[in-house]
Amino acid sequence: MFGPRKPLDSVTSHPKNARLAKTLSWPHLVALGVGAIVGTGIYTLVGVGAERAGPAVILAFVICGLVCGCAALAYAELATMIPAAGSAYTFSYAALGEGIAWIVGWSLILEYSLACSTVAVGWSGYLVGWIESAGVHLPHALLVGPHGGGIVNLPAVAVALAVMGMLIAGTRESATLNIILVVIKLVALGVFVAFAAPNFHTANLHPFMPYGFGSDGKHGVMAAAAIVFFAFYGFDAVATSAEETKNPARDLKIGIIGSMVLCTIIYMAVAIAAVGALPFTALANSPEPLALVLRNLGQPLAAHLIALAAIIALPSVILVMMYGQSRVFFVMARDGLLPRRLAKVSQRTGAPTLITVLTGVTIALVAGIFRLDEIAELANAGTLLAFISVGACLMVLRRTAPDAKRLFRAPAPYVVGMLTILGCLYLMVSLPPMTLVRFAGWNVIGLVIYFAYSRRHSDVAARAASVAAL
């Protein structure tokens, strides 16, 4: 019904010139996960979430953490069972069929591309705030896109292209740099909590839920959860690195689950400290909420250093997300669903250079033109669909391949799978209606490409046809 499925024994078998080099170990994977998860979501979307839910943005973080925790368990089982690049796209191809895999892969391309662009715009906000706090004022036309009365967000374009250059240099080199950036980022958040926590006032938590629990698309706890959900994903990029992992059996489960648990703890500490130290109305929609809190607490130096740390470290999120997007793109091209010439890897670095360039340029263009909240919401829709498919894959493969080797087994797989699906569906319907319309439009374009090109050039479909002809 959904097209041919890729046999499990063929998922990790590829020609030498289309095979990614194994260069990563578990510290790289934990850093990739933390590098992707801890970023714009906690540094900038706390303000957006506070505007939508008030102090109950804390509850929004809890809900997202629970949903993503279930998804992380499913990812950990599937990634160690199918240690190949492509994450949810590859899992869907093996469990559900080519048609579903295409939709998931097409949505992942949207997720990673827009996630990179969102972080680039958030990074630009911190950079501009940091420069202007020093008394230097830059031309407005080069700091925002047309939506804000400018021409292009030049800092966002510049950081996207710079990260693209890092990835072209090689996967291991990029991952090692990412570890350094992650340490800087975590130290900065620790400093923020240390300064903000002593100024916690319970009065700032009242009313705790001023807009209610549900969502009208604009306000409520679930409306906030639908946007701050962006702050949690990133561990799926760890699954995307499976093919480049030296010891998938050990490293993948540590990378996926370890990064998810660590980041949930960090997020709760930062969100409680921020909302408790400053009324949510002051935080609402600030492009640099953590620095704003510290300035209001009379800590201008700490605020300056937090903003500087964000400027230095936020590119790690762009790096990981751009890495994930290029790998999904690469695997789809290797499978014949996109032009195969895109699946060539560099002989020097073992990385897909052409796809990385295309990815980087596209991300830079989007970051230069669009608004942060619109980009983040649309990226969330793509991620939620991918998580739904992973929950389904977990349950389907437990039925269709019960004896397959699983190096990590998710507890209560049918409960975990259903909670992932239902939680993500609830978050998806909580997104603004216009976001869902844009997401549907993206997938209509994807289906046109699939039926016009991809289905006829698919390696799996060609093999299935040749077997049927015998």
Automatic annotation (TrEMBL):
InterPro entries associated with the record = AA/rel_permease1 (IPR002293)
Tell me which domain of life the UniProt entry assigns to the organism this sequence originates from: Bacteria
UniProt topology in membrane: Multi-pass membrane protein
UniProt KW keywords: Membrane, Transmembrane, Transmembrane helix, Transport
Where is the protein localized? Membrane
TM region(s), chain numbering: 29-50, 57-76, 82-105, 112-131, 151-170, 177-200, 220-242, 254-281, 301-324, 350-372, 378-398, 410-429, 435-453
One Pfam family of this protein, by short name?
Answer: AA_permease_2
- Major localisation: membrane
The answer to whether the entry has keyword Signal is no
Q: Does the keyword Membrane apply?
A: yes
Q: Which residues form a coiled coil?
A: none
Q: What is this protein called?
A: Amino acid permease
